[in-house]
Design goal:
Number of strands: 18
Radius of gyration: 26 Å
CATH topology of the largest domain: Transferase(Phosphotransferase), domain 1
Largest sheet: 6 strands, antiparallel
Shape: globular
Number of domains: 4
Low-confidence stretches: 1-42, 316-329, 377-382, 387-419, 421-464, 580-594
Number of helices: 20
Distance between the termini: 47 Å
CATH architecture of the largest domain: Orthogonal Bundle
Helix content: 25-40%
CATH superfamily of the largest domain: Transferase(Phosphotransferase) domain 1
Length: 594
C-alpha cells in the first residue's frame, strides 16, 4: 500500500492572517485563488483521526471535540470552526494559527495539524485532560498561596517567552488556561494575540509595534485600564494586568473588579484596586498591588514578577519538569524516529525526517504525540490534595438499557492502545478504519482471553440485529421503564464536577433543582436524570447521580460567562444543603467537588 497523500498545510498569507492595529488587513486576490485550490477535502480528516461524540467545549462559532489519532491511538482535541458563522471574525482564526505555528512552548497547547474546506476549519490541538483553571478555582473556592505561586510562575514564564518572540496574548483569563494530565498549565486561544514579530513587521508595514497597540479587545473584567480607555497601550503591560487579575481570583476566589453595570465596571477598573483581603500574606498583597497599578509605566514587568520574593521564595519547593522551552523540530529524537518508522513502514527514515521537520502534518503529529507520551525527566508538581472527599464517575450499565459500555471502563488507560469502549462499530460509520499503516479492529480471541485473565473485560462490538416492524410498534406503544441514575465510586486521585446533596430520592432531588433554577430565570429541559439549563448568559447541564446511597449533582458548563457559572455553582451548593422542607440540613455535610 502506497503512503497516503499528506494533507497540505493551511496556506496562510500575511495579508490574510494578520489582525493589525489601526488598519484592516488587505487580502490579495491571487493568494485567495491559491488558497481555494489547495483546500483540504472535508472527508480527509476522517482518514487520519476518529472524531468522538464527546464535546470538550462549545462557543459561538466553534465546537471542540475529543478525537483519536489513528496511528498512535493518542487523544487529541479538534477545534471545528464554521467559516460562514465566523464572518468578519475569520481573520482571528488565521491569526491564531499563525501564532500557534510560531510559538512552541511546554506551557502552550500545541497545534498538530490544520484542515480547511470552503466552509470549515479544523485545528488538531493538544488534548488537555485536566480541564480549565476556572473550574479548578470553582472546585476549591480559592487556592492556597503555594499552589497559586506555582501556577503564576509557569504563566509568567510562558508570557516572557511570548513577549520575547514579539507577541502579546491580550486575552488572559482562567478559562484560557488548561491543565494537562500532570497538572501543568497550557495556555490556549491566541485569536486576539498581537503578532509583532520581526517577520510580520517586515511583511506588514501597517502592523503597530508591541508597545503601540490600539485595538480594544479581550474580556472586560480582565482588561487593563489603558485598553478600555481606547488609548495607545503596550501589549506586554496589559498581559501583566490580566495576570494580576487572575492572581487575585486564584487567592481570593472572586474578581477584583466586578459590576453588573458596564460603565460602573469601567470606573472601578480605571480607579484601580484600593484594598486587599487581610488573609493574604504581605508578599502576595505586594505583588498583586504592583501588577494592578493603573499607570502602565509604573506597573511591574514580567521579569520583575518572576524575581518577586513571593515567587522566588517558593520556587525551590517545586520539582518542575526540566524540558526545553522551545519544542522546535530541529533536534529530532532518534529513538522516537525509529519508533515512527515502525508506525509507517512504507516511508524510509529520510522521508519521515523531512515530514517531521516540516511540521503540522500527520507524521509530525504522530512524532510529537509519541514524544509527549514519554515520561518526563522529572516528575511534575502535583496539585494540592483536597481535604474534602473526591469522587470519580464510572460507567454504569442499567439492566433496562441497551449499551455496549462495560463496567470496567475506569480501569482502561487514558491513552488507548486498543479501541476505547465508546468507539462505535467503525464498520457501520463513515469514519474509515484505516490509518496510513494501521487498522482499528476488534480484539482477537487471544487478546480477549489475555485481558479476561487479567481481570479486564474485553470490548465487544458489532452490528446490532434489526427489529421487526411489529416489535418496534409494540415497544413504541409500551411505556419504557425509567432508567436508573448513574452510580459513582470513590477515588482519591481523580476528580470531577460533583456536588454532594442531602437528598436520598433522585427524583425528588431533580425536581427540587429544576424548580429552584426555573425561579432563578433558567429554562430547563429534563431527560431521565439530567437537566439542560440555559438563560441569556450561560448554558450548563446537571445530572443526578448516586454516591453511597446519596444523591450527587454532576455539573458542566457548556458555554457562557464563567463567573456567572460560579454564581450558579454557589446556588447549587445552597440547594444541596437544603432539605425537602426548605430548611438547611445540619446532619449532612455537602462538599463541592471538581
Amino acid at each position: 500500500m502506497s503512503p497516503p497523500v499528506i494533507p497540505p498545510q493551511v496556506p496562510i498569507s500575511h495579508q490574510q492572517t494578520k489582525v493589525s492595529d489601526n488598519t484592516n488587513s488587505n487580502n490579495n486576490n491571487n493568494n485567495n485563488d491559491n488558497d481555494t485550490a489547495n483546500l483540504t477535502k472535508c472527508e480527509d480528516i476522517c482518514n487520519y483521526y476518529h472524531i468522538h461524540d464527546k464535546k470538550l467545549g462549545e462557543g459561538g462559532f466553534a465546537k471542540v471535540r475529543l478525537a483519536t489519532h489513528l496511528a498512535t491511538r493518542q487523544y487529541v482535541a479538534i477545534k471545528c470552526l464554521d467559516k460562514i458563522k465566523l464572518g468578519a471574525e475569520l481573520p482571528r482564526i488565521y491569526n491564531e494559527i499563525e501564532c500557534l505555528k510560531r510559538l512552541k512552548h511546554q506551557n502552550i497547547a500545541r497545534l498538530f495539524q490544520v484542515f480547511e474546506t470552503q466552509t470549515s476549519i479544523y485545528l488538531v490541538l493538544e488534548y488537555c485532560a485536566g480541564g480549565e483553571l476556572f473550574d479548578y478555582i470553582v472546585s476549591k473556592s480559592k487556592l492556597e498561596e503555594a499552589e497559586s505561586s506555582q501556577i503564576i510562575y509557569d504563566l509568567m514564564r510562558v508570557l516572557d517567552f511570548i513577549h520575547v518572540n514579539g507577541f502579546a496574548h491580550r486575552d488572559l483569563k482562567p478559562e484560557n488556561v488548561l491543565f494537562d494530565e500532570k497538572h501543568q498549565i497550557k495556555l490556549i486561544d491566541f485569536g486576539l494575540a498581537a503578532n509583532c514579530s520581526s517577520d510580520n513587521m517586515a511583511s506588514n508595514s501597517n502592523q503597530a509595534p508591541l508597545d503601540q497597540l490600539s485595538t480594544c479587545c479581550g474580556s472586560v473584567t480582565y482588561a487593563a485600564p489603558e485598553v478600555i480607555s481606547g488609548s495607545i497601550y503596550s501589549g506586554t503591560a496589559c498581559d501583566v494586568w490580566s495576570a494580576g487579575v487572575m492572581l487575585y481570583a486564584l487567592l481570593v476566589g472572586q474578581l477584583p473588579f466586578n459590576d453588573n453595570s458596564i460603565p460602573r465596571l469601567y470606573q472601578k477598573i480605571q480607579a484601580g484596586i484600593k484594598t486587599l483581603p487581610p488573609f493574604l500574606s504581605h508578599e502576595a498583597s505586594d505583588l498583586i498591588a504592583k501588577m494592578l497599578i493603573v499607570d502602565p509605566n509604573q506597573r511591574i514587568s514580567v521579569r520583575e514578577v518572576l524575581a518577586h520574593p513571593w515567587l522566588r521564595n517558593r520556587s525551590h519547593t517545586f520539582a518542575r519538569i526540566n524540558r526545553r522551552l522551545d519544542f522546535s523540530s530541529g533536534c529530532i529524537d532518534e529513538h522516537l524516529l525509529a519508533r515512527c518508522c515502525e508506525k509507517f513502514p512504507n516511508l524510509n527514515e529520510s522521508q519521515l525526517r523531512d515530514y517531521i521537520q516540516k511540521d503540522f502534518n500527520y507524521y509530525s503529529a504522530a512524532y510529537h504525540l509519541m514524544r509527549s507520551a514519554l515520561p518526563p525527566r522529572n516528575m511534575g508538581v502535583k496539585r494540592t490534595p483536597d481535604k474534602r472527599k473526591v469522587v470519580k464517575a464510572v460507567a454504569y450499565v442499567s439492566p433496562t438499557k441497551r449499551t455496549r459500555f462495560v463496567t470496567s471502563v475506569a480501569n482502561v488507560s487514558r491513552t488507548p492502545k486498543t479501541p476505547p469502549p465508546y468507539l462505535r462499530h467503525l464498520q457501520e460509520t463513515n469514519c474509515p478504519v484505516e490509518s496510513p499503516n494501521s487498522k482499528l479492529t476488534p480484539l482477537g480471541a487471544k487478546e480477549q482471553n489475555q485481558q479476561e485473565n487479567n481481570g479486564m473485560a474485553a470490548f465487544v462490538y458489532g452490528p446490532t440485529p434489526k427489529k421487526s416492524i411489529v416489535k418496534r410498534l409494540l415497544e413504541s406503544a409500551t411505556p419504557s421503564k425509567l432508567r436508573q441514575p448513574r452510580k459513582i465510586l470513590m477515588q482519591e486521585n481523580e476528580v470531577m464536577n460533583i456536588t454532594l446533596t442531602s437528598y436520598k430520592d433522585p427524583l425528588v432531588c431533580l425536581s427540587h433543582f429544576q424548580e429552584a433554577l426555573v425561579k432563578k430565570g433558567f429554562h430547563c429541559k429534563r431527560k431521565d436524570f439530567s437537566l439542560k439549563c440555559f438563560n441569556q448568559s450561560i448554558r450548563l447541564t446537571l445530572e443526578v447521580c448516586i454516591y453511597n446511597n446519596q444523591c450527587a449533582i454532576q455539573r458542566k458548563r457548556i458555554k457562557g460567562d464563567a463567573w456567572q457559572y460560579k454564581l450558579v455553582c454557589e446556588e447549587i451548593l445552597r440547594i444541596s444543603n437544603t432539605s425537602i422542607g426548605g430548611n438547611t440540613s445540619e446532619s449532612t455535610s455537602c462538599n463541592t467537588l471538581v
